[in-house]
Specification:
single chain; 469 residues; alpha/beta; nine-stranded mixed β-sheet; two-stranded antiparallel sheet; globular; disordered N terminus
Length: 469
């Protein structure tokens, strides 16, 4: 509504005061904008609420470990070995399967919690009071490619940012001289680089691979950071400054270019890593006792032992998300009785060493360790009585540290281990809970792309509060 009341005239003193404040605000805004421009996309960011964990180590068992032979004790399955499954099988399964197949391995209760663990994991069993074993996982896809991508990105059908990229996007990282997201010996199959891709998120949040599944872990290093022996650091700095100036001039002419901005940032990070990464990747500084604890002196455990030790070293230096992959060995359609014990021997001691080492160094309570594969296996046989088929209907993953309840076996599959039936946890729920432990609300961690807001959990996911300490 129009008001006819006249305002008093502005005095010269008032004019100077208001204008001075205005000039100050303009200067402050300019400084703030400069800080925003100069800030690294990987700079630490605030959380939505108080976090329980600061970082994540994901131990990925590519192929799908058999849950009823490792962490999901099924005495009824052993009792009914050789009998037909007394209910309908899922509509989608990979190949012809037979009758019930009891576990060839014994289970025992361990720790104060009395959690059941297979004899295949004697070292991890000693850490059972630190584990939150989720026996009621389930997913949406029975094929390796789709299930692997669902676990890593939240989608089994589309290319989406990986969970490591989402977490780094949401939180930044604690060490500006290292990547925020590192993946050690990642798989080459079933999605390949899409499992650690930033997809439509800025390239700064892409996972940095150290080698790949075909690379021995003692040769897996951060690529392309070694300076030329004849090029001094000062000269390289000058070259990067000149290149950066050219690129920024180009950006002023063309406008925002996420790919170019990502390349500029990657050059700068690579320059900074030249001082930090070589020493970090050199495990010779670790004591003989530590290397022996991780099994590095044993040919059976050496490869994954180095991965686990590197995961601890990167985590200790503030890398936000580290993945170590045991690839691609857990797909026992046949050869179960020989391959599963071998796989377990390769990872059991290194995993227990990682948990123990983190705990000893006071890092476990703020580091969330996640273990598991893309799905489980069937309780019915395949390949005679020496194999199990894919099973996304019910399987096991476990967490440790980072605010979860240790010594807990949560949820359950049916008496044979086919379907999750009690306190079911979908992959989306796992992601929501993981983000919650990091202080992030999964419904608010979004990125606008192609006209809509995306998130790791898409339109799904519920936080599993019962497993939080």
């Amino acid at each position: 509504m129009f008001c006819s009341r006249l305002q008093p005239a502005l005095t010269r003193r008032d004019m100077l005061r208001v204008a001075g404040a205005g000039f100050g605000n303009v200067a402050l805004a300019a400084l703030a904008n400069a800080d925003a421009v100069n800030a690294s996309p990987l700079s630490p960011k605030g959380t939505h609420f108080l976090p329980r964990a600061k970082r994540v180590i994901f131990l990925f068992m590519h192929g799908g470990p058999s849950h009823m032979d490792t962490f999901d004790y099924k005495p009824q399955l052993n009792k009914d070995h050789g009998q037909p499954l007394p209910f309908d099988k899922p509509r989608v399964f990979s190949a012809q399967t037979g009758n019930l197949l009891g576990s060839p391995w014994k289970f025992r209760q361990h720790g104060e919690s009395g959690a059941w663990v297979s004899e295949l994991f004697p070292h991890v069993a000693k850490c059972v009071d630190d584990l939150c074993i989720i026996n009621s996982m389930y997913g949406s896809n029975s094929r390796h490619g789709g299930a692997l991508l669902e676990l890593h990105t939240g989608s089994d059908t589309f290319i989406r940012p990986s969970m490591g990229s989402w977490i780094t996007y949401g939180l930044g990282t604690e060490n500006q001289n290292l990547p925020g997201f590192v993946t050690i010996c990642p798989t080459l199959t079933h999605g390949g680089a899409n499992a650690y891709s930033s997809a439509f998120l800025p390239a700064d949040y892409q996972g940095t691979p150290l080698g790949n599944a075909s690379t021995p872990s003692d040769q897996a290093k951060i690529p392309f950071i070694q300076n030329h022996s004849g090029l001094s650091s000062d000269l390289q700095r000058s070259e990067l400054d000149f290149l950066g100036a050219l690129n920024r001039d180009h950006l002023q002419q063309t406008g925002p270019d996420a790919a170019l901005e990502g390349r500029i940032n990657s050059f700068e990070l690579a320059f900074r890593m030249q001082a930090a990464a070589p020493e970090l990747q050199d495990i010779s500084s670790e004591s003989e006792a530590v290397q022996e604890m991780y099994g590095i002196n044993d040919p059976t455990t050496r490869n994954f032992g180095i991965q686990c030790l590197m995961a601890r070293r990167f985590t200790e230096q503030g890398v936000r998300f580290v993945q170590a992959t045991h690839s691609y060995k857990w797909d026992q359609h046949d050869g179960l009785k020989s391959a599963l014990p071998q796989n377990s021997r390769e990872v059991d001691q290194p995993i227990a060493a990682l948990l123990t080492d983190l705990k000893t160094r006071g890092l476990l309570h703020e580091t969330l360790v996640l273990w598991g594969g893309e799905f489980g296996r069937t309780p019915v046989s395949q390949g005679g009585e020496n194999g199990r088929d894919h099973n996304p209907q019910g399987y096991t993953m476990w967490m440790a540290g980072g605010g979860v309840r240790g010594g807990l076996q949560y949820g359950a599959t049916d008496d044979y281990g086919y379907y999750a039936v009690q306190d079911k946890v979908h992959v989306h729920d796992l992601h929501a809970t993981l983000l919650h432990l990091l202080g992030l609300d999964h419904t608010r961690l979004t990125y606008r792309y192609a006209g809509r807001d995306f998130r790791l959990t898409d339109v799904h996911g519920e936080v599993v509060h019962d497993i939080i300490a």
